């Protein structure tokens, strides 16, 4: 069995030339319509390679601190609910609460809040969630069957309005934060014991099977007025974390076939886009959310074993594809380029048709934006979270992009809690706006911060710094079980690894990487290129890393 380690992106032209000759006899045409699995002579096991980490400029410390303060300052101190957005703050988002519960331990580790303060806030949040009125009624309730309504009243915690659904994936994002708190607060102290116990209660009462109306898939949610949402989670997207949680449940677990059937739809979105061959999803949040809590480096399910990569590498390619799209800039939006890119779900100026460069263009307010084989929409709106939350995947392109955004637009888009949600240099139309404002000669700028965009910024910078969130979550037995029942193997899931919490290490401690490569392996760049097959061997486009900071 060949063991291939991911390496840095750059592959020398000399190596590429050798690979082209070696692969010439088995090369397939490289087209965007290609959806058939790549045939490899034997399974490929991907292991993470200990790479020299690029130093983060001081700007990133400032981004982290400001983004942490968003969660600490805007969450309701009386019940722990976190607003969907701020300063407009119309309602709480249960997904934002999940990110807030993850943010508080980061604040402890960085010295921004004391452990006592974070324990107080976390206990307040978990108790409130535990005690929320639950039931099938259309009003006066905050949850049902262990699931929570997408948006809650900031004070009462009840369903915000009749258009708000009982959300499976947003409950999943909440539960990731709940389980993170369970694993982090590990001291033999009454309040931390209570955190662990309540977290266990909240997770165990989520009835994942109840939302399996079209078994084995899981529905997107439920309305008390109309019943189950007909659409199930399928394809490739942020629901990866949802299925891991559902598979790991000790009380209402779904069967492993749920993962098998879900991944069968992957081939519809596997292909070559902007020179990258990967499992595509247009908005970058789909490539980021699950990775906030789960370290996918070196672990593979059956689908990724066939492809010879892991989901981490897949997300790296997605980031590069979006950057390549911005460089190509087929719609000729202003300022798109190698250091200004990033499409995801975000705020936008308005739902409107306007003339741009002699043709009618559609613009939107809040919407998913993306570039890929599917889920494509681009109206010139850039969301800083799209690039920044890709930091662990591709620091060599994310660092210069983040610095450039701050230098060029920081006066308008960088404020008390870091980067405002989004901006659009091309939108300069004097019309009523859904949100945000027009800056003379600069275009449209959002007026809000959005919790589910702030969360990935903070957590992914932290994961890049020291793998903190990943390493804490590796200790959670429910996450480990969910991954194993989904068929993930290798890496930190291997039995040879110490059982979480039994090795004497503290939560968040990084596990040392092997000091040397196994004897007899070829250099990592060559090995990875071979394992990734034809389309990776002849691409040959080197990254523009000249502006990336040098390691300290």
Can you put this structure into words, describing what you see?
The protein is of the alpha+beta class. It has helices at residues 13-23, 58-74, 94-110, 115-131, 168-184, 190-204, 240-248, 257-264, 289-293, 302-307, 311-328, 384-388, 395-413, 451-466, 468-473, 477-485, 524-531, 534-537, and strands at 2-4, 44-46, 85-86, 92-93, 143-144, 147-148, 151-152, 166-167, 221-223, 227-228, 270-273, 276-279, 345-346, 352-356, 359-363, 367-368, 414-415, 418-419, 423-424, 437-439, 443-445, 449-450. β20 (437-439) and β21 form a beta hairpin. Mean pLDDT is 85; it is low at 1-49 and 497-552. This is Glucoamylase family protein. InterPro entries: Glycoamylase-like_cons_dom (IPR019282), UCP028431 (IPR016883).
Helix content: 25-40%
Mean pLDDT: 85
The rounded Rg comes to 23 Å
Major beta sheet summary: 3 strands, antiparallel
* Uncertain residue segments: 1-49, 497-552
Q: Hey, roughly how much beta strand do the residues contain?
A: 5-15%
Please count the helical segments: 18
**3D shape:** globular
The spatial strand order of the largest sheet comes to 8-9-10
**Class computed from helices, strands and strand pairing:** alpha+beta
How many strand units?
22
Distance between the termini: 37 Å
Short description:
The protein is an alpha+beta fold and 552 residues long.
Question: Top keywords for this entry?
Answer:
alpha+beta; three-stranded antiparallel β-sheet; 18 helices; disordered C terminus
Helix-strand blueprint:
Blueprint: E1 2-4, H1 13-23, E2 44-46, H2 58-74, E3 85-86, E4 92-93, H3 94-110, H4 115-131, E5 143-144, E6 147-148, E7 151-152, E8 166-167, H5 168-184, H6 190-204, E9 221-223, E10 227-228, H7 240-248, H8 257-264, E11 270-273, E12 276-279, H9 289-293, H10 302-307, H11 311-328, E13 345-346, E14 352-356, E15 359-363, E16 367-368, H12 384-388, H13 395-413, E17 414-415, E18 418-419, E19 423-424, E20 437-439, E21 443-445, E22 449-450, H14 451-466, H15 468-473, H16 477-485, H17 524-531, H18 534-537
Parallel strand pairs: 1-2
Antiparallel strand pairs: 3-22, 4-7, 5-6, 8-9, 9-10, 11-12, 13-16, 14-15, 17-18, 19-21, 20-21
Helix pairs in contact: 1-17, 2-3, 2-14, 3-4, 3-5, 3-14, 4-6, 5-6, 7-16
Keywords: Signal
Biased composition (Basic and acidic residues): 494-509
Domain Glycoamylase-like: 230-477
């Amino acid at each position: 069995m060949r063991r291939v380690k991911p390496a840095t992106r750059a592959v020398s032209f000399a190596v590429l030339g050798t690979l082209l000759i070696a692969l010439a006899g088995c090369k397939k045409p490289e087209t965007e319509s290609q959806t058939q699995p790549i045939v490899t002579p034997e399974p490929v096991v991907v292991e993470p390679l200990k790479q020299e980490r690029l130093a983060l400029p001081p700007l990133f410390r400032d981004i982290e601190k400001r983004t942490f303060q968003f969660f600490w300052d805007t969450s309701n101190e009386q019940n722990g609910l976190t607003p969907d957005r701020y300063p407009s703050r119309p309602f709480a988002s249960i997904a934002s609460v999940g990110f807030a519960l993850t943010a508080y331990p980061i604040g402890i580790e960085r010295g921004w809040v004391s452990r006592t303060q974070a324990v107080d806030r976390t206990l307040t949040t978990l108790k409130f969630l535990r005690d929320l009125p639950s039931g099938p009624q259309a009003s006066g309730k905050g949850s049902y069957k262990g699931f929570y309504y997408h948006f809650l009243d900031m004070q009462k915690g009840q369903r915000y309005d009749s258009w708000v659904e009982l959300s499976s994936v947003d409950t999943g994002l909440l539960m990731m934060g709940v389980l993170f708190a369970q694993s982090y607060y590990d001291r033999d102290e009454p309040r931390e014991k209570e955190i662990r116990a309540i977290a266990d209660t909240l997770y165990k009462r989520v009835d994942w099977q109840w939302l399996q109306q079209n078994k084995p898939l899981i529905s997107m949610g439920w309305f008390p007025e109309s019943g189950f949402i007909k659409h199930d989670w399928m394809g490739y997207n942020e629901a990866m974390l949802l299925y891991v949680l559902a598979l790991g449940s000790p009380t209402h677990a779904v069967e492993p076939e749920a993962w098998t059937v879900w991944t069968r739809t992957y081939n519809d979105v596997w292909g070559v886009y902007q020179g990258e061959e990967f499992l595509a999803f247009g908005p970058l949040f789909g490539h980021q959310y699950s990775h906030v809590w789960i370290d996918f480096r070196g672990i593979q399910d059956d689908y990724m074993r066939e492809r010879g990569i892991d989901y981490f590498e897949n997300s790296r390619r997605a980031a590069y594809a979006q950057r390549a799209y911005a460089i190509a800039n087929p719609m000729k939006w202003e300022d798109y380029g190698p250091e200004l890119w990033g499409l995801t779900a975000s705020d936008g100026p308005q739902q409107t048709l306007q003339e741009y460069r002699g043709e009618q263009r559609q613009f939107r307010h809040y919407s998913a934006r993306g570039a890929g084989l599917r889920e494509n929409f681009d109206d010139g709106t850039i969301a800083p979270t799209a690039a920044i939350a890709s930091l662990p995947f591709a620091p060599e392109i994310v660092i210069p992009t983040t610095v450039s955004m701050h230098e060029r637009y920081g006066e308008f888009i960088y404020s008390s809690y870091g980067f405002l949600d989004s901006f659009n240099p091309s939108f300069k139309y004097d019309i009523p706006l859904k949100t945000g404002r027009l800056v003379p000669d600069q275009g449209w700028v959002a007026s809000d911060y959005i919790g589910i965009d702030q969360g990935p910024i903070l957590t992914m910078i932290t994961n890049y710094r020291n793998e903190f969130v990943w390493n804490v979550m590796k200790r959670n037995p429910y996450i480990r079980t969910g991954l194993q029942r989904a068929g993930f193997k290798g890496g930190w899931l291997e039995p040879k690894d110490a059982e979480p919490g039994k090795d004497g290490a503290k939560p968040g401690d990084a596990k040392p990487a092997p000091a040397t490569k196994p004897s007899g392996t070829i250099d990592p760049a060559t090995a990875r290129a071979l394992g990734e097959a034809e389309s990776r061997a002849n691409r040959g486009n080197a990254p523009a890393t000249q502006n990336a900071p040098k390691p300290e």
